[in-house]
Design goal:
mainly alpha, 3-stranded mixed beta sheet
């Protein structure tokens, strides 16, 4: 029943003007009623914006949806700006007390001293959207990036196929020249987009009164209850575990044994698996599953040209409808992706936002809802995958453990890049990438000339300094997994406690302490959480090899 209609904001802006007129007339009841109508209309605008994002991500080359996506993103900001200005005006009028009581003190505090967006800020927002479109269009052509070696063009698919194996056997130096040549080309292609985005983020941070982008992102964008300094201490504690993992397990044959995992599931089979096993975790999880299936609130399709290569869950607040988007790889990662995203769907379903203006989604908590459900599903892998269960479990738990490593790596990478005191160039970004990865033991820096891994992480371009949330949440999710090895019911109780908290009312530290989970800031916590997972993965690896 959800339909998209190109939105004309003229009536909305007229009503924001009328809100100010009601304040001048001293009509507190009229202003309250009009505010409620404007708030609902803004939820409608927000939901239209989500619809255009979903349509755009289904095919980034569809010009209509690309244009509508850009249009609604700008309109969203302009509509919010107009509503905030009008509310600020009312909060400075004679009916200020009645209006503040009606909209809530938290909202009133946000709006009293609101400073309207400048033309420069609106232009910067427009440019950011253009750059993201450029990023995704370029990302879709990665397979077309080539390096010519002795008259032959090589792309990554060719290099990593049997032709590349043949080249490595007879001309290893040539193979490495091709590999690093492609890596360099990718870095140089994507760097200009990232460098311009970094400049825009710096301007945003400075405009908001912050010294650097890291402080701005942690405090303003994500409202975290820990600082970049806390995150750096977390990163430092993770590095020894990461070095052990990359030395002993990263190249395990289990990661390359997907042929042992059968079958590859279709979209419907993945949804059916959820419906079969969710009640064995908790009966209440069937309610959001029923909603997803009966109302068709998902777009789960194989990866294709032009389709966003990833997965996420969002919500259309006007319709009170979460929505799951996923691109499938035809591998065992598909089940981990769907269970992960369904954890987000449950969060949106059980704990929807009640105030779009003041309630921020705590990413560190919301990622627990997804990562922990993904971890709990390993309990059923024996039934789902039969003889391939150990391979699927190794891949899933390895993925979760790497969430901690990658979360730290890309947070540290971005903090170094975004606080770089000097001109940012492709070479500078590449050197920082190599330096950071080497500190975590991914490789020896002396063995790398170029590393383009950072260009594949869309969050680096779209959501600066988001990635540490994967690490923080995986710390909690893996504690729940560890508990499930000896007491599955107790682990489920903790998971449901975290899920019922939602992601809007309290911070990460508060919820974890209430649910009896350790914080990454506690002495020895990182080793205590990660080492059992490393040991379990090592046992699976030995059993598979033996």
């Amino acid at each position: 029943d959800i339909r998209y209609v190109h939105y004309d904001p003229e009536a909305f802006y007229a009503d924001t003007d009328r809100l100010c007129e009601l304040a001048d007339a001293g009509d507190a009841d009229g202003a309250a009623a009009l505010y409620d109508a404007l708030y609902d209309e803004f939820l409608y605008i927000d939901s239209l914006s989500v619809i255009t994002m979903l349509r755009h991500d289904a095919d980034i080359y569809d010009e209509y949806w690309s244009d509508e996506y850009s249009y609604m993103n700008i309109l969203w900001s302009e509509a919010q700006d107009a509503l905030y200005i009008a509310c600020s005006y009312v909060l400075d009028s004679d009916i200020r007390r009645d209006f503040a009581a009606h909209i809530g003190e938290d909202t009133a505090e946000l709006l009293r001293d609101y400073v309207p967006m400048t033309e420069e800020e609106l232009a910067a927002m427009d440019r950011e959207l253009e750059l993201l479109d450029e990023y995704y269009a370029l990302y879709d052509t990665i397979d077309d990036v080539v390096y010519n070696y002795k008259g032959t063009d090589w792309n990554l698919d060719r290099l990593f196929g049997f032709r590349g194996d043949a080249l490595a056997e007879k001309d290893y130096d040539g193979y490495m020249e091709v590999y690093f040549g492609i890596q360099k080309a990718l870095c140089e292609s994507f760097a200009p987009i990232y460098i311009e985005l970094a400049g825009l983020w710096r301007e945003e941070a400075e405009s908001a009164g912050y010294d650097d982008v890291a402080e701005y992102a942690y405090d303003y964008l994500y409202a975290r209850d820990y600082s970049p300094e806390d995150a750096q201490r977390f990163c430092d504690a993770v590095k020894p575990i990461a070095r052990q993992y990359y030395a002993d397990l990263y190249y395990s044959d289990l990661f390359y044994a997907e042929d042992y995992v059968a079958p590859v599931f279709s979209t419907q089979e993945l949804i059916d698996i959820l419906g079969e096993y969710l009640p064995r975790i908790d009966d209440s999880l069937l309610e959001p599953w029923d909603t997803l299936t009966s109302r068709g609130l998902c777009d789960i399709q194989p990866i294709a040209s032009g389709r966003y290569d990833g997965a996420y869950t969002t919500t259309m607040l006007y319709y009170r409808a979460p929505f799951l988007f996923a691109s499938l790889e035809d591998s065992c990662y598909d089940l981990t992706t769907i269970t992960h995203e369904f954890g987000h769907f449950c969060d949106f379903w059980f704990s929807p936002q009640t105030n779009i203006f003041t309630q921020l989604d705590d990413l560190d908590l919301s990622e627990i809802h997804s990562n922990a459900l993904q971890a709990l599903f390993t309990e059923f892998y024996g039934e789902i995958y039969d003889e391939g269960a150990d391979v699927a479990e190794f891949i899933n738990l390895g993925y979760l453990l790497e969430n901690i490593f990658d979360g730290c790596i890309y947070d540290e990478f971005q903090r170094r890049v975004l606080t770089w005191d000097g001109e940012l160039t492709p070479e500078v970004i590449n050197d920082i990438q190599i330096q950071v990865c080497a500190e975590y033991g991914m490789y020896d820096a002396a063995d790398r000339e170029w590393d383009s891994t950072w260009v594949y992480i869309s969050h680096n371009f779209e959501q600066p300094l988001y990635y540490i949330s994967y690490a923080a949440s995986a710390m909690a999710a893996l504690q729940i997994w560890d508990m499930a090895q000896t007491d599955f019911d107790a682990a489920v109780d903790v998971y449901m406690d975290v899920l019922r908290w939602g992601a809007h009312t309290e911070g990460y530290f508060t919820v974890l302490q209430d649910c009896g989970l350790r914080l990454f800031t506690e002495e020895g916590a990182v080793e205590a959480v990660c080492q059992p997972v490393v040991d379990h993965l090592a046992a699976l690896d030995r059993a598979f090899a033996g």
